[in-house]
Write a structure and sequence with these properties.
The chain is mainly β and 164 residues long. Helix content is 12%, strand content 42%.
């Protein structure tokens, strides 16, 4: 009986830290790394001629961040900020140095979750995906949307250019 000197490979690290964010009409699943900070809701400064999903701008660390109501953008619900609402400051992925962040309205605090390959299932159905959504998923039986952050950033840029 030969002795096995082969060491087992280190386990593959497939788990990522995610965040479930409650918005009106659904939940969003995001990588934890995309979130810079969570703030209490405060009434934003209005942006003239902006679409209804662009609630305005908020001040954060010297930046004027566009505040997005995702539920409105996606057509899920007519979401408004109020008591108990939070604002999640997101790191923009688009690489625009003049717009490295944007903000998203949420209902309550984001919930940290561990996302493993086994627990995450993409939901395939015939329904069109809402605007700003990359896919529908189930995470441990929790239904959620994977937002298309680059598309959202692009739409914010167009809305701000139009309103300027």
């Amino acid at each position: 009986m030969s002795k096995n000197t082969h060491h087992p490979a280190a386990p593959v690290q497939d788990d990522i830290r995610g965040v479930l964010i409650q918005v009106a009409g659904g939940r969003l699943l995001l990588p934890n790394a995309t979130i810079a900070e969570v703030l209490s809701y405060a009434e934003p400064d209005a942006v003239p001629d902006a679409p209804d999903w662009l609630l305005g701008r908020i001040r954060w660390r010297g930046w004027q961040l566009p505040l997005v109501a995702f539920a409105r953008l996606a057509g899920l619900a007519n979401e408004r900020g109020g008591l108990g609402s939070k604002v999640v400051v997101m790191r923009a992925l688009g690489g625009n140095p003049r717009a490295p962040y944007f903000a998203m309205l949420t209902q309550g605090f984001p919930r940290l979750v561990t996302v493993s390959r086994d627990a995450l299932v993409t939901v395939e159905d015939q329904n069109a995906l809402p605007n700003g959504v990359q896919s529908r998923v189930l995470l441990n039986e929790d239904a959620a949307f994977l937002p298309d952050l680059e598309s959202i950033e692009h739409q914010i840029g167009l809305a701000l250019a139009h309103a300027a």
